[in-house]
């Protein structure tokens, strides 16, 4: 009689398959439970937020949390951390009779409000963190790893505390603590007790049910961004100090890699901070510090003259400046201009940029100094180049007012046509070979070069037509001096008439 039975190998294969199927079933089962509870939490928190926003629209403030704990700085409240419970529900009124609770632990959700009663955060837990493999969860005793889940309108940058007549701005990406054994805001921040969205640290009210002691490592030794009066903050020096400290704090914590903070700390920093302070704390800056501020705020969309307060010292020091809004949308501010011309054949200048000397001379053979004429005047000086190559130069040796990343704009004006006022002059030959370039010499002995070739633009100034050749140069580092050159093929140009050199300095 033949008895059929499974071999040991077949039994092991069957057991392995059943184990895998069982494991998969358990995973799906627990996934289903976690997803259901997480969906319930998301729905609860969204419902809470909807009603908080409605209450704020009606009352212009947010209700105080239940069982609130005051988080303080020098005995001044920074925020209140508590629960979304019966007291809040009664104030909201239209919320309904059921107070939402965590579907797994049965506790109320955490609710915090800043001292200005405008900003809030509502916290819960989120069980299903998708970045962790479900098999790993099964291997753990708890079968799950809770992470913080939050909805908010809090700025996530800082809170403001008023102590007597002094304002203190304190960097904090959260207004919920995982441990309330100390209610001093500096202890919470420096002790790594802040709770942050999607991290493995949970609000203190969850300490009865699960581990709340995991850290969010926002451990700065000094989170105070600014201390002083609002008037001081409105000055350029005060705002720069504020910006530098805030940038330093967030650039040395894990938040520097988060999209929110990368966006906040990046370009257009001054304008973003000014908008932020105005929106969050009603700090109004009466004047822009620069043309770029005006451009970003939408107040200056065209080239022209605008009022700015470059030092932030108040209306007595407000200046009217020319804003170059169209220049690659960089909104450069014209801070100085230097003009060279000739009166009665003698060289002269009027300037705001200090210059020790400037010359225009031919470096090939003919050493005659060629004068420059003011296009608003009737004087003219002409120079016959002859059949030779010519290289003319202008030097500016005192560049003490120029900073790195300023822009120098150099313009050469040439008579475009001969008339009764400008006899014995000829225009530049369109076929002439020439190169117009400038150099910025730096204190470390290096220089940078920029140039144009055969670019002529016609401009009408004081009822006369002119050709202008323009070069722009951005200073890369600490400058020492500046030189302008034009190289000309005299055989094509014949009589050459330079009439005007203009040097402008712009700051972004």
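Q: What amino acid sequence fits the structure above?
A:
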């Amino acid at each position: 009689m033949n008895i059929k039975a499974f071999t040991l190998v077949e039994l092991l294969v069957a057991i392995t398959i059943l184990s895998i199927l069982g494991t998969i079933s358990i995973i799906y089962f627990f996934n289903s439970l976690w997803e259901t509870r997480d969906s319930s939490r998301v729905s609860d928190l969204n419902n809470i937020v909807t009603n908080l926003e409605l209450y704020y629209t009606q009352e212009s403030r947010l209700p105080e949390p239940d069982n609130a704990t005051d988080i303080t700085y020098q005995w001044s409240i920074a925020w209140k951390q508590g629960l979304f419970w019966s007291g809040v529900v009664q104030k909201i009124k239209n919320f309904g009779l059921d107070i939402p609770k965590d579907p797994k632990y049965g506790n109320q959700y955490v609710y915090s409000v800043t001292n200005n009663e405008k900003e809030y955060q509502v916290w819960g837990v989120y069980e299903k963190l998708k970045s962790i493999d479900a098999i790993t969860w099964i291997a753990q005793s708890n079968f799950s790893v809770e992470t913080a889940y939050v909805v908010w309108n809090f700025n996530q940058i800082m809170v403001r505390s008023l102590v007597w007549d002094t304002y203190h701005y304190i960097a904090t990406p959260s207004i919920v603590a995982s441990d309330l054994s100390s209610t001093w805001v500096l202890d919470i921040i420096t002790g790594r007790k802040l709770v942050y969205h999607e991290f493995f640290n949970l609000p203190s009210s969850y300490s009865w049910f699960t581990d709340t002691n995991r850290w969010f490592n926002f451990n700065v030794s000094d989170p105070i961004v600014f201390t002083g009066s609002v008037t001081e903050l409105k000055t350029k020096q005060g705002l720069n100090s504020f910006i530098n400290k805030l940038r330093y704090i967030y650039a040395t914590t894990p938040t520097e890699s988060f999209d929110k903070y990368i966006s906040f700390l990046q370009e257009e920093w001054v304008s973003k901070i000014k908008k932020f302070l105005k929106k969050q704390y009603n700090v109004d800056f009466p004047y822009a510090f620069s043309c770029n501020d005006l451009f970003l705020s939408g107040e200056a969309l065209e080239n022209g003259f605008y009022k700015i307060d470059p030092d932030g010292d108040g209306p007595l020091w407000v200046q009217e400046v020319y804003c170059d809004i169209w220049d690659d949308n960089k909104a450069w501010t014209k801070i100085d201009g230097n003009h060279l011309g000739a009166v009665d054949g003698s060289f002269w200048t009027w300037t705001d940029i200090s210059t020790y000397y400037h010359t225009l001379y031919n470096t090939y053979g003919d050493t005659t100094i060629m004068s420059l004429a003011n296009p608003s005047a009737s004087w003219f000086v002409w120079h016959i180049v002859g059949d030779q190559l010519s290289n003319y130069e202008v030097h500016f040796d005192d560049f003490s007012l120029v900073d790195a990343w300023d822009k120098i704009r150099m313009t050469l004006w040439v008579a475009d046509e001969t008339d009764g006022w400008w006899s014995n002059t000829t225009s530049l030959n369109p076929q002439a070979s020439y190169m117009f370039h400038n150099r910025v010499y730096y204190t470390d002995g290096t220089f940078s070069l920029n140039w144009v070739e055969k670019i002529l633009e016609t401009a009408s100034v004081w009822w006369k037509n002119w050709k202008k050749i323009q070069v722009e140069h951005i200073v890369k580092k600490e400058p020492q001096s500046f030189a302008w050159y034009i190289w000309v093929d005299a055989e094509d140009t014949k009589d050459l008439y330079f009439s005007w050199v203009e040097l402008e300095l712009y700051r972004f």
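Q: And what stands out in the fold?
A: Residues 130-142, 340-388, 417-427, 490-495 have pLDDT under 50 and may be disordered.
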